[in-house]
Known about the structure:
Layout: H1 9-16, H2 20-28, E1 35-36, E2 42-43, H3 46-60, H4 65-71, H5 81-110, H6 119-127
Antiparallel strand pairs: 1-2
Amino acid sequence: MKSSDDLTIGELAQRFGLPTHVLRHWESAGLLRPARRAGGQRSYGHADLERVALIRMGKEAGFTLGELRALLSTPNPMDHRDLLHRQVAELERRISRARAAKELIEHALACPHSFAECEHARERIAAHIPPAPG
């Protein structure tokens, strides 16, 4: 008999707006370990809800499934400080690139010139052209 706290894979997937195959993939990757009912059907409880939320948060932060498996393999993510520091640095790089892209778009919206005529845009475009092999 199903407890009121237990969810099927379909119910858990629906709750998070995910396809069920994503949860199965996370299970095969070692990120989820659902309990099994007598018939072998997966059963998810509150701890699984929290785990899926953590996995989604980690994915949003840019962690790979392998990195998430490492982070979630211990009760304290601080056991993986090096991984956390690397991800902070990567997020800083992504934020910097996103800010630069936003500034270019804002400039394009405000500039009366085309990209071909705008010195600011020409400089930005030139900075993104790789040097000739040498």
